[in-house]
């Protein structure tokens, strides 16, 4: 005669961890996808000093202009006329992007104004210009 084991109510309870691990991985993927990465302009410029320089929120789009008037975006040289197309492409990737122009203190004013015009034509009204605080 086979004897049945009677349940005493003290059986061990097990928690299935699989759903929790699934949620953790989904959250990890969400944070990786939604993170915006900073794209540097690619060159170091000698920024002018300013008495009233203030800290601004970090920008996503960096445009550098060296002392010879050459424009750099994403570590590559860009023609001034192509700045608008590049900014529009970056805005498609990150609609909330902000622009920071890092112009060398020896750069010609006309080149900086042309770059600012191209950025405004791309649809960005607020442009920050980088300077060193005294």
Automatic annotation (TrEMBL):
GO terms in the biological process aspect are: protein transport
Q: How does it sit in the membrane?
A: Single-pass membrane protein; Single-pass type II membrane protein
Which molecular function GO terms apply here? transmembrane transporter activity
Q: Where in the cell is it found?
A: Cell membrane
Record key words, sorted: Cell membrane, Membrane, Protein transport, Transmembrane, Transmembrane helix, Transport
GO terms for CC?
plasma membrane
Instruction: Locate the transmembrane regions by residue number.
Output: 20-38
Return any one Pfam family short name: ExbD
PANTHER family hit by this protein: BIOPOLYMER TRANSPORT PROTEIN EXBD2, EXBD MEMBRANE COMPONENT OF PMF-DRIVEN MACROMOLECULE IMPORT SYSTEM
Recorded family membership:
Belongs to the ExbD/TolR family.
How is this protein named in the record?
Biopolymer transporter ExbD
Species, as recorded: Ferrimonas lipolytica
């Amino acid at each position: 005669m086979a004897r049945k084991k009677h349940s005493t109510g003290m059986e061990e309870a097990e928690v299935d961890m699989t759903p929790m691990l699934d949620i953790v991985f989904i959250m990890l993927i969400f944070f990786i996808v939604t993170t915006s990465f900073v794209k540097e302009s690619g060159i170091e410029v000698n920024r002018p000093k300013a008495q009233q320089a203030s800290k601004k929120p970090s920008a996503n789009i960096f445009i550098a202009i060296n002392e010879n008037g050459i424009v750099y975006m994403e570590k590559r040289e860009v023609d001034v006329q192509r700045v608008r197309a590049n900014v529009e492409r970056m805005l498609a990737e990150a609609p909330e992007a902000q622009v920071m122009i890092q112009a060398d203190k020896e750069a010609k004013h006309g080149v900086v104004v042309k770059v600012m015009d191209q950025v405004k034509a791309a649809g960005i009204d607020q442009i920050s210009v980088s300077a060193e605080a005294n």
